[in-house]
Amino acid sequence: MLEELTLSSLGVIDEAVLELGPGFTVVTGETGAGKTMVVTALGLLLGARGDSGLVRAGARRARIEGRVVVDPQAPFAATIETRLDQVGGELDDDALLLSRSVSAEGRSRAVLGGAAVPVGRLSDIADQLVAVHGQSDQHRLLRPAHQRDALDRYAGEPLSAVLTPYRAGYQRLRDAERELAEVASTARDRAREAEMLRIGLAELEQADLQPGEDVALLAEEGRLAHTDALRTAAEEAQLALTGDDASATDVQGRDAVALLDAAKRALERVREHDPQAAALAERLAELTYLASDLGTEVAGYAASVDADPTRLAHVQDRRAEIAALARKYGERVDDILSWGEQAAKRLVELDGTDDRIDELEALVGGLRSELTDQAAELSRLRAAAAARLAASVTTELAALAMPHARLSVTVDQRPELGPNGVDEIELLLAANAESEPRTLDKGASGGELSRVMLGLEVVLADRHPVPTLVFDEVDAGVGGRAAVEIGRRLARLARHSQVLVVTHLPQVAAFADRHYVVVKSDDGTVTRSGVHDLDGDARVQELSRMLAGVDESAAAQAHAEELLEMAAAERATR
Predict the structure, then answer these.
(1) Separation between Cα atoms, residue 459 and residue 454, nearest integer Å
(2) Is 408 within 8 Å of 388 (Cβ atoms)?
(3) Is 538 helix (H, G, I), strand (E, B) or coil?
(4) What is the DSSP track for 372-411?
């Protein structure tokens, strides 16, 4: 429930506070006084577009604040708290605080539950709390989607129990159809990719590469290509280490082993005279043994280095084969092998395309069959509800001074499934007994369209998901007895919802539980308006003005008192 609305520097309104409550609240005032600014303010709180033209002349910004009490037991309460958490806002003792400001330069700011948010976030939450009906909303009633929504609301839980799973299934169908189209459209590309992968994998299988093979082959090629140089170097090293047999015992030999042995013998001769000389002799003995072993290994290496042109040619051919594969699949053998692993996995995926197409086709067929059955049930439920809705609204229209009007609701089926079934809903109106039913855009005047919309709201009152209803001059184009009946219907709506109405009809205003008037004054420089709560004689005076167009009229005052007494009597029988 909207508990309080504060307006500051909005249009011609300087400052105003509306303390609202349950039931029926009405706002009246002379033309141009700014009473529609109340609805404009609500629109801004609901996320409507704001511009600098809404800011009162001379002010820096317009500001609107609202306080909405949220029933913790309401079905939408959990959703509101979740969305508040998402933006960092919170409820204040079960009340939601909303704020919107528009600067003189046209910049907007919004606050939701104490958190600054983008303006669009206001509508995400506020649309669940307040529904505004004005001239533009009457035009929305002409749209097929709104007419279908009205019928579905009237059909209630039985239809919702089918429509909710239908919509979920329809989304799954769309997803499956989208994937099927994508897979089918890329089938040729996938086949081409699979063929290229098979060719590459066949090349790798034939090559039989081994991890690190390219590194080993490079080393082997270097050895085979330089066998003469390697052998010569090894032989020279062996001679330097050990010499030949003739020189090995020659103290004057120049090989390393002989020289080390001569040094060892020299120290051995004096070792008993000095422990340090003995230690050095032992170390020279170790070096002699090591040099001798190393000479033997070098000799063995020299003997093993043999030229093998056949092996060299094989190694070079193998390296050329690997280089050709590297140009296609990776710089090194390990990279090529990694590509092969990924290619094998991808080929498994591509080879499963046909199976996936079969799965998707089966899924699409099953979903279509299931949705077709659900759509048929939706059509049946809508057709049954359409007859009841038409009869109920027709009854309301008769009470709204359209005694011969007939509303009918047609439910036709299109061939293709849609997000809400296969039904096309259309409201038709015959404004009098001689008229044939016509679509609302062709068969209803502005005043008749207002009454159709109000009749729908009355019929749907106990099914309305929004706790606060706002009507902006929906009584335009009507008067007399029809205006009285509109007041009665709005009062009836107020039994189930909070109702706020901006009107110029005293017959409507008389039925309100609470009455505000927008009063304009002119000090010669700036026009300001104030919003005042009326009660007792002040309310009678305002209704008199609305009836007669002047403040002092005994007849109008008597009529106003009569209207208030009639409305009070009817409220007492609620």
Answers:
(1) 9
(2) no
(3) helix
(4) HHHHHHHHHHHHHHHHHHHHHHHHHHHHTT-TT-EEEEEE
CA 122 to chain centre: 16
DSSP state of 55: B
Kind and range of the H or E run holding 242: helix 227-242
Q: How far apart are the first and last CA of the chain?
A: 20
List the Cα angle 58/62/68 in 5-degree steps. 160
Question: How many angstroms separate the CA atoms of 179 and 532, rounded?
Answer: 61
| pTM: predicted TM-score of the whole model, two decimal places | 0.61
CA dihedral angle for residue 224, residue 228, residue 234, residue 237, rounded to 10 degrees: -150
Name the β-bridge partners of 53: none
Instruction: Indicate the SS3 state at residue 179.
Output: helix
Q: Is 10 helix (H, G, I), strand (E, B) or coil?
A: strand
Instruction: For residue range 248-286, list pLDDT tens digits in order.
Output: 444 445 788 888 888 888 888 888 888 898 899 899 899
CA distances from 538 to 398, 502, 506 (A): 33, 18, 14
3-state class of 226 per DSSP?
coil
Q: Nearest to residue 489, comparing CAs of 397, 568, 572?
A: 397
CB-based burial label for 334 (10 Å; 0-12, 13-18, 19+): middle
Nearest to 115 by CA among 95, 93, 79, 86: 86
